[in-house]
Amino acid sequence: MTVPKFSLTDNTDDAVATSKAEVIIVGTVRGADNAQLAEGAAGVNAAFDGRLLAALTTLGATGKAEELIKVPTMGRLTAGAVYAVGLGKLGDGGLDPEQVRRASGVAARALAGTKRALNTLSVLDLQAAVEGSALGAYSFTEYKSEPGDAPVAKVDVLAPTEGTAKAHRATLKAATAIAESVLIARSLINTPPNDLFPASFAERAEELAKANGLDIEVLDEKALKRGGYGGILGVGSGSSRKPRLVRLRYQGSKPVKKVALVGKGITFDTGGISLKPAASMDKMTSDMSGAAAVLATVVLAAKLKYPLDITTYLPLAENMPSATAYRPGDVLRLYGGKTVEVLNTDAEGRLVLADAIVRACEDEPDYLIDTATLTGAQAIALGNRTPGVMGTDEFRDRVAGIAKRTGEGGWAMPLPEELRADLDSKLADLANVTNHRWGGMLAAALFLREFVAEGTPWAHVDIAGPSYNSDSPWGYTGKGGTGVPVRTLAAVLADIAENG
Ligand code: BES
Ligand code: MN
Ligand code: ZN
Predict the structure, then answer these.
(1) Domain coverage including residue 389
(2) Separation of 260 CA from ligand 2 center, angstroms?
(3) pLDDT tens by residue, the chain, 500 residues
(4) Which of 28, 170, 209, 358 has its CA 20 to 30 A from that of 323?
(5) What is this structure's pTM?
(6) Whose CA is nearest to atom 18 of ligand 1?
(7) Is the CB of 328 under 6 A from ligand 1?
(8) Most distant CA pair in the chain: distance in Å?
């Protein structure tokens, strides 16, 4: 997972004029009825004799988000071109870091084929500019015989005027590590299910654990049987690729708190015997996005040395229909002993998560977060860019607030008590679905709640829509896996490390 090589450039008067970059990136802001130059554009503007904005306006610049206008420098700078990228309108609190992140991403996508660029948006927000550039530059070409234009190799970033060089270097290092982890998740998601199945996913986790000094334990099918993990085994029973439960542990020094992370890892979800329709079933290659995010996050925690004790669980299974598959009507005995009547084999995520959540609670975490591509209802309710956040009231609100601030988005959703009774089963302790479609995201979360140890602050992040982009690229998000909610999980961990 390579990100461009970033270097800090001193913000001197001639930094832009002497830059060896091929392209200089400047920002434009949307004003009342015209575009304005963002801070950082002064050097380019000077080389254009103060007429950069006039040139951009002639070319139709408005400063709106996602706008990109290319201007040749005609020898005024060593660089051949200026890319002016729209940041959008200023909010009440000024520029939001996410505006810088997205604009940098738009520019980075347009830089494919360029070797070296200078991004001046970093003077607005260094971390956001680096993250946006790194995420926007990403493309997954592992399976292409001819990969096409290479992502931009080097990105110089102008140092912000405030703060010390040492602080800037630390920011750059953290932003690079964060972006790298998002890309670890994206690449796992983008790896097709014939190559990424429970055992091969577990192997990748082992490689990452080794490289980052994490403890890892992988339960294979036999161990899962011995342990009584009926959810993971039931869901995985239809596949020739046997399920796994991966446990990773990062122990920071002088840990402030114990945090457990659980991520749904269905390496492909056909729906099982309750088969999904063929149209867009291929999207279910992303049904392990939760596990990918959790794995990428614990790797990041180790790299950034968070003072936390973190255990993560990745329940991995492939949901297939076959002669050995679990059936609608089966009763599974989950880890910890609760029984579940399976009324729909396509509601498989909650079954593997329930096993993992019960196991995670045995570690007695101070906080528990799970994330999953759990319900189509999430995307119906909140669209493709806003995860639904449920759980215990206080922690849910904390996670949703942080999610919003990272720019990944997240919205607190309720757990209406009246829906809980709809999960009652005549036969078992619980049914895995209700007999209606209303509040599907909330019903799934209520199911999970049954498995969270009493009193544990818990947040459940449903990322069915936001984990995967089937639409056009936008901001720093290309097609395919997005890596959501890695940055949110990282920010929650950082917040817990700081505030307990
Ligand atoms: N993996 C799906 C949810 C999903 C749907 C993710 C669309 C991404 C995009 C999940 O396993 C599922 O099939 N959920 C069912 C639950 C239903 C049977 C109660 C759903 O949402 O339809
Ligand atoms: Mn399903
Ligand atoms: Zn699924």
Answers:
(1) 193-499
(2) 24
(3) 689 999 999 999 899 999 999 999 999 999 988 999 999 999 999 999 999 999 999 999 999 999 999 999 999 999 999 999 999 999 999 999 999 999 999 999 999 999 999 999 999 999 999 999 999 999 999 999 999 999 999 999 999 999 999 999 999 999 999 999 999 999 999 999 999 999 999 999 999 999 999 999 999 999 999 999 999 999 999 999 999 999 999 999 999 999 999 999 999 999 999 999 999 899 999 999 999 999 999 999 999 999 999 999 999 999 999 999 999 999 999 999 999 999 999 999 999 999 999 999 999 999 999 999 999 999 999 999 999 999 999 999 999 999 999 999 999 999 999 999 999 999 999 999 999 999 999 999 999 999 999 999 999 999 999 999 999 999 999 999 999 999 999 999 999 999 99
(4) 358
(5) 0.98
(6) 347
(7) no
(8) 79
- The protein residues having their C-beta less than 5 angstroms from ligand 2 (an ion) are 269, 346
462 lines ligand 1 (CB under 6 A): no
Instruction: Judge whether 392 lies within some domain.
Output: yes
> Cα of 15 to ligand 2 centre, how many Å?
53
Same domain flag for 149 and 243: no
Tell me, what CATH number does 256's domain have? 3.40.630.10
Instruction: Determine the distance separating the centroid of ligand 2 and the alpha carbon of 345, expressed in angstroms.
Output: 7
Give catalytic residue positions: 276, 350
For ligand 1, is residue 221 a contact (CB within 6 Å)?
A: no
Clarify whether residues 205 and 103 are in a common domain: no
| Ligand number, closest to the Cα atom of 375 | 1
296, 184 Cβ separation under 8 angstroms: yes
Bridge pairing between strands 5-9 and 430-431:
unpaired
282 occurs within a structural domain: yes
Tally of domains within the chain? 2
